[in-house]
Amino acid sequence: MSIRRKELGDFLASLRSKCPPAAFGFPAGIRRRTQGLRREEVAQLAEISPTWYTWIEQGRDINVSSDALDRLARALRMDRTQRAYLFELAGRRDISPLPADPELPDGLLDNLVQGIAMPAYVLGRYWEVLAFNPAAAALFSGWLDQPGPHNLLEYVFLDPGARILVEDWEARARRLAAEFRADSRSSLDDPVLEAFVARLAAESPDFAEFWRRHDVLERQGGLRGFHHPQRGHLAYQQVTFRLVDHDEIKLVMLRPTT
After folding, report:
1. Which residues form the HTH cro/C1-type domain (predicted)?
2. What pLDDT band is residue 100 in, cutting at 50, 70 and 90?
3. What is the pLDDT of residue 219?
């Protein structure tokens, strides 16, 4: 029995034990030997075989489909974190993840980056810039210091100024396309994303070429060089953070190396 399968079974058993039968339409009864729902009751709610569900809890070497996991998550009324944990343990992609938490309060992201001394900006799902500080505007002169809206991919691939500012532009642009593809892996069928990628590919042959390669890379830190028109050569260490409850939102900070 693998550790993951045992963890999956233990997780379901633990969650089942915390479900009040009456809240799920079953009589509480005084003859119940265990707390919470019975295995056959969970199987009934999820519309799967009781034997099959028992095997899942026992950690047996069986393949559990994404559809079955979805029905189990709904049957046990899992929240967003529990559902993500379930699919992660099972090694499956969530076919219908719960929507993101409510939008962040107005002004929160702006207040966040304004308190950072080094260049910092926040990217959304489509790498639109949601907030940035004066240090970032000064670094990305000709872009962030101009009226918005701003989008990092549009800047890199469509603004001629980016080819001058960004050191080793081709390597950085190729990596950005691969990072964006990896970042979008859970929403490749999103119509808004499809339209954005199609438009960018139509306007930038470079992006179209890099996107066709299907390279995927996680957005990582590392050295970033710039040829600034007023300040000359600049070098930074890039660090990227994600918000826990809004993993599509990324905070990027550039720490000067000199």
Report:
1. 11-83
2. low
3. 74
Residue whose entry in the numeric block shows the structure tokens 């691969």: 178
Q: 139 and 72, same structural domain?
A: no
Q: What is the CATH number of the domain that holds 45?
A: 1.10.260.40
**pLDDT exceeds 70 at position 161:** yes
What is the pLDDT, as a whole number, of residue 1?
A: 60
Range of the domain at 8: 3-90
In a domain, 101, yes or no: no
* pLDDT(70) > 70: yes
- The three state secondary structure string of the chain is CCHHHHHHHHHHHHHHHCCCHHHHCCCCCCCCCCCCCCHHHHHHHHCCCHHHHHHHHCCCCCCCCHHHHHHHHHHCCCCHHHHHHHHHHHCCCCCCCCCCCCCCCCCHHHHHHHCCCCCEEEECCCCEEEEECHHHHHHCCCCCCCCCCCEHHHHHHHCHHHHHHECCHHHHHHHHHHHHHHHCCCCCCCHHHHHHHHHHHHHCHHHHHHHHCCCCCCCCCEEEEEEECCCEEEEEEEEEEECCCCCCCEEEEEEECC
Which pLDDT score is estimated for 95? 76
- Bond into 134 cis (ω within 30): no
Examine the domain organization and report whether 48 and 167 are in the same domain: no
